[in-house]
Design goal:
Layout: E1 8-12, E2 15-23, E3 28-35, H1 38-46
């Protein structure tokens, strides 16, 4: 692991989620997923 983190927002069926994942050789493993907070949603919508 190189110590960098990549954060992504995903939209699934109209829901905005924050997903933490790791890329393996042949798989993507989801570590956690949760709904965004009100503040996170407003920051996303400003972009």
């Amino acid at each position: 692991m190189n110590g960098t983190k990549q954060r992504q927002l995903k939209i699934a069926k109209g829901r905005l989620l924050i997903v933490a994942h790791t890329d393996r050789t042949d798989k993507i493993r989801i570590i956690s997923a949760r709904k965004v907070t009100v503040l996170e949603r407003s920051m996303y919508e400003e972009k």
